Task: structure prediction
Amino acid sequence: MTLQANTRLTAAETALVEAYNTQISDLPGDADVLSARDRLLDDLKTGGLPTRRIESWHYTDLKTLVKTWPALEGADTTKVLPPMVAGSSVLAVLQGKADGARADGFTVSHYRDSLSDGSAAARLAAASDDDAIGRINGSFVRDGFVLEIPADAELEAPVEIQSIHAGGQAHTRFPVKIGAGAKVVVIERHIATSGDEAALVSSVSDITVGEGAEVTWVVVQQQGAADTFLGQVRVDLGADAKLKLFNVNAGGKLVRQELRIDANGEGSELTLRGVNLIGGEQHVDVTLVLGHNVPNTSSTDVFRNVVFDRGRGVFQGMIKVAIDAQKTDAKMSCNTLLLSDEADFSAKPELEIFADDVVCGHGATVADIDDNHLYYLKARGIPENIARAMLVNAFVAEVVEELEDEPLVEALEAIISAWLAKHA
Amino acid sequence: MLEIIDLHAKIADTETEIIRGLNLTVKAGEVAAIMGPNGSGKSTLSYILSGREDYEVTSGDIRYNGESILEMDAAERAAKGVFLAFQYPVEIPGVATMQFLKVAMNEQRKARGEAELSTPDFIRTVKEGAAKLKIDYEMLKRPLNVGFSGGEKKRAEILQMALLEPKLCVLDETDSGLDIDALKIVSDGVNALRSPDRAFIVITHYQRLLEHIVPDTVHVLYKGQIIRTGGKELALELEENGYADIIGEAAE
Result:
């Protein structure tokens, strides 16, 4: 079926619809997948990209912010990078196309095969009415990896998913099933090797954590200075599972990273940490929707944001506690350093609690560097610029150190220091 | 080494003058004690010497080795050898103490045109210094001053002083919050640093500290001025009679 552009659509929306019409003939998928794609695109076409009038997009008016829809092809210069942690199993997606993969102790296949054989169709639907990222990704997704970590597997080396591009469009999806009792560290990197060409990247990670599994999942976003990144991490957390989810944003021009997490098993523990480094003219939005759906689950969420220049940051954190989710223990905090007069940050924590025996709390702070801290460092002979950099670093290092995984902490600190050296 | 000449200073952005015509000279090798009642300007003087930006010098001068330091910021003064041991050392989460010490030592060396310390040399120097002050080396891996007890914080200040080897050491109520044993350790640490080319300004409320760190001169600060200067016996006199007599004399 061919979709006609609606005259009320913006230039970017029109280009989106045209891109779909052009690409549909070679997008992978059986009949079920194609009809799922058509429905998603139809919703996008009818509703347009979300505007500030949709509550969950209030601070990130995608309709206004997405000005163009780049051509599909990017520069053909991408290649696999050395992993952040030496010895990792690297799964690379180059310019939206999954490369060969080294799998050590788990199974992996190309997501394009799941699209072609139709097994991907069932989970292609949008996650909610306001799921624009799911719709865009579901319409255009071409590839990614399907991972399965066997029950009770203890992977010694981290698994590193690299999604690398240079301009153009890339739409990837990573369905991951982690078996009961498995222990694994997964690093999900989104990285641009050329910052000049504006790229549009969408990515959905669809993670199921089995009973009693212990998982560390680290998302590192380092898109180029002109790039749009629309990311989503969906998590289904099983009984007694422990998940440490770290989300680091250190790049991109327009970034929306959604974390949609459901604690669906009793006794599950979520440790969610985020670092957002924002500068220049960047707009970075992290939106969390965390459902405590069963009794006896716990979560702690800490986000640290630093904003320089004319950067604009957004944090929306919604914790929902279902009516029978008694003994939920949920704490959320969002701390921001605003480092210029023109920097801007909006924080919107929300609690929606239906159970009556829970401990839930949230807090948000926005501040400049503490003058007392700065004075103390200077009084020991540390020049002001170095003292400021130390204090900004310290502000985010505090949460990174909670990973308690030395090679990983060092790799993340190197990325953070490099970003700060360039922007601070 | 230090000459403070008719110094007037106020809290920045207010009209509150705290230092009102203060004169003080401290020679190399000298230990000068500054005593005075609450609110006389003792801590303010220490902050102004170190270059804290919350205070503004309105007239007068501070000369260090013959050179005015008023235009230098805190970091420049520190690199030139001015050190303030804080009454309330600041807790800085996220900055490991060792990392802080390394950056401070190397930045000062850099400012003086010296080579940076190698990591093994740095660690050895810190370990030796810590042992002398009975500081647990493991404590130095923790964030700076975070969760340190009052005594640990003061010992950490003296450790920094020993490692940075300043020429003018200002100790702001280093005795406050210390028990007798800690006072002894801290005083021994300070005494070990006494040398002919280093001067100390010891700010204190009590004679007790001066039994351990014996001063060459004692100055009484009141309402932003030095109203009396004497030898170490002046401290004993104050301990005996309080400040009232001296303040009374000065008012006449």
Q: What stands out?
A: Residues 406-423 of chain A form the longest helix (18 residues). Chain A is about 20% helix and 40% strand. The CA atoms of residues 149 and 178 of chain A lie 5 Å apart.
